[in-house]
Amino acid sequence: MHFHARAAERVRNPVLQKALQKAKPLFVGKRAKGVASLADDGLDFELLRSTAESIRNRVLADLDVWLDIFETRARVSGAEVLWARDGDEVARLVVDIAQRYGVTKAAKSKSMLSEEAQLNEALAAAGIRPVETDLGEYIVQLAGEAPSHIIAPAVHKTIGEIEALFAEAHGRPEQPRTSADIPAMTQEARAVLRQHFLSAEMGISGANFLIAETGSAALVTNEGNGRMVTTLPRVHVVVTGIEKIVPTLEDFSTLMRLLPRSATGQTISNYVSLLTGTRREGDQDGPEKTVFILVDNGRANLLGSAWQDMLRCIRCGACMNHCPVYFSLGGHAYGWVYPGPMGSVLTPLYTGIENALDLPHASTGCNQCGVVCPVRIPLPKLMHGLRETQVERGLRPWRERFALRAWAWVARRPALYRWLTRGAVRYLRWLVDGSGRIRVFGMAPGWTDGRDLAAGSGKTFHELYAARKRA
Amino acid sequence: MRIALYVTCLIDLMRPGVGFAALRLLEATGADVVVPPAQTCCGQPAWSAGDRQTARLLAEKAIAELADYDHVVVPSGSCTDQLRNIYPQLFADDGHWGPRATALAARTFELTEYLARFAPELPLPDAEGGHVTYHDSCKGLRGLGIKQQPRALLARVKGLQLTEMADCEECCGFGGAFSVNFGDVSTRIVDRKCESIATVGADAVVGGDLGCLLNIEGRLRRRGDERTRVLHIAEVLAGGGES
Ligand code: SF4
């Protein structure tokens, strides 16, 4: 199914629309407060953005060097570092490790990269049960769906839908629920998940950042599940992208001033973990085995290209939270792992420009994403660049190309243009019905399916202006 | 002082009154205002579609015909953005057109920006009495930083009361070709805008970009709202706004 068809379905889904309508002001309001709170600490958002942008740019300029440093430091503290070229390789490596350690159940904390690798499917096929432990991820796993948002995976679900899923999975009758029941429902999921934390032999997590100077993974969560996943099971596997490196703890703390604020408006998330190496002598907990799987899956190709800016992304979700298109459709319409503006850039770049032709066009160019992105990724500019690449590679429909060129040919011949536009405005007048407007316009049904079209006055400005000058 | 009024293709075709309103306002500043006779379209649709080559051809035409004016004034945020921010990018690597594009960019102003800056004392006619709300268009607001200018101008119109709507900075869903190619998504977005407008209950919604306004008006009418007028700010400021 293509984006168009998926989109058409979703704008007409009242349950989804209700869920989205509710979430949007929350996201926007919380971020606005979070960013405003920077002033309390004497910090300036725009200055901080510039610093964050340059930290990320510095890493990307010498990514191989930083990865080298990270690898060395991580090994010194007892972790194993593996490299994966693509999603298949990630899945193979994880399944391998699981089999080596006799794992039958893996507890997972949120990782979008594991979605890129379709890791859950691969684990299940190998007889290993993956259990998502982030509440939102747990919900979408019960529903057999993919996350629809990078930080709020189940944002597309209403409380009623979640209640139905819980009732079925937890073997109890369904009850009527309101938002007042959220704590109770969370407790219920917690009780179930606790058993999984205790029995899983392997924990799988992502990493929000990799810190080169210490060889650590930084994990930012709100539910504490990340801590359980990374400390209770014997084996901990971190799956993350090679671009997640930051040089120092100082840099990490700078980025942390922006990440939670941009994502949920929090000054800091409930849990921030720095995971370094394996359990040491005298440690209360921690895995016996820690493996980092550092994944390329298309990232290295972007280095030094026109798209390198995209690699600065710290996955805060602010771009989608401020996107009018995202909040009309939800994340699933985008067709792959990443939705919203960042997804409209990443999906074509990671899965093939020719496989996601609609996404860079599915934007009004409003730049509501660009002005909130904490690392100043010029998302509309990147989408525009993808549009240009489509044209250069001859991937646009010939009708569109022909129409544009024909129109431009005319527009460069003012006399002809005047003559044709005079005809056009008269034609529009002729289409008007009793309401004084056009209800059905065959040349642009996409417009009149949902809107009337004002018909103008039957004369163009230029002909009236010329007449005025003659008079 | 010679000013070129750049009449956008949407105004030319869909609502010539906006062009004449802008003309009256500029003439009232005492300047010599001309609508260059050969102007057609700034090329934004081609640029937006990713057709750089075609966009450049139209940009060259516009740059050439606007070269001899002290100022170029455009009653649209999105076309101003094209002339000011996109043209220099289009010719960044071009020794001939590049400097011309940059020079034009420096002389190009959106209408409210121009009036607020160069004609702060311009007498404005009284409003027939009305309660309005203002929609910030994306390119005007985020592309050009236009926010205070239209409000300052509206505040000087006697008898006019402005009430801000929630999310006045939120996109209306127009997006040029987007509104036709992704009609159902666009409609969903403009629906939310219509709801904000309805909540304010103003007599008119005012904006600076005809694309947004046609989109909002089209949806308001389809939803059955025949009352709320949808006006370009030039029409309000010049008096005798017609919807
Ligand atoms: S592109 Fe920017 S706003 Fe979007 S998720 Fe990445 S960092 Fe956040």
* Number of H/I helices of chain B: 13
Small-molecule binders: iron/sulfur cluster
CATH-derived topology of the largest domain in chain A: Rossmann fold
Largest sheet of chain A: 6 strands, parallel
Shape estimate of chain B: globular
Q: What topology, given as strand order, has the largest sheet of chain B?
A: 2-1-3-4
Tell me which CATH architecture of the largest domain in chain A applies here: 3-Layer(aba) Sandwich
Largest binding interface between chains = A-B, 63 and 62 residues
User: Looking across the biggest beta sheet of chain A, what order are the strands in?
Assistant: 1-10-7-4-2-3
Number of domains of chain A: 2
CATH class of the largest domain in chain A: Alpha Beta
Distance between the termini of chain A: 59 Å
Mean pLDDT of chain A, as a whole number? 96
Protein model, in words:
- The complex is a heterodimer of chains A (471) and B (243).
- Chain A has 471 residues and is an alpha/beta fold.
- Chain A folds into 2 domains: 3-295, NagB/RpiA/CoA transferase-like (Rossmann fold), CATH 3.40.50; 410-470, no CATH class.
- Chain A contains 21 helices and 12 strands.
- Chain A has helices at residues 3-11, 14-36, 45-61, 63-76, 87-100, 112-116, 119-125, 135-142, 159-169, 182-199, 225-231, 249-263, 299-302, 318-321, 326-329, 340-351, 379-392, 398-411, 414-431, 445-448, 461-470; strands at residues 80-84, 105-108, 129-132, 202-205, 209-211, 216-221, 235-241, 245-246, 271-275, 289-295, 437-438, 453-454.
- In chain A, helix 2 crosses helix 12 and helix 16 (340-351) runs parallel beside helix 17.
- The N and C termini of chain A lie far apart (59 Å).
- The model of chain A has no long low-confidence stretch (mean pLDDT 96).
- Chain B is of the alpha/beta class and 243 residues long.
- Helices cover 52% and strands 13% of the residues of chain B.
- In chain B, the strands form 2 sheets. Chain B has a 4-stranded parallel β-sheet with strand order 2-1-3-4, with helices on both faces. In chain B, strands 6-5-7-8 form a 4-stranded parallel β-sheet, with helices on both faces.
- In chain B, helix 5 packs antiparallel against helix 6 (97-107).
- Chain B is globular.
- The mean pLDDT of chain B is 95.
- Classes of the chains: A alpha/beta (471), B alpha/beta (243).
- At the A-B interface, helix 1, helix 17, helix 18, helix 19 and helix 20 of A face helix 1, helix 2, helix 3, helix 4 and helix 8 of B.
- Bound molecules: iron/sulfur cluster.
- Residues 313-319, 342, 373-375, 377 of chain A line the site of iron/sulfur cluster (SF4).
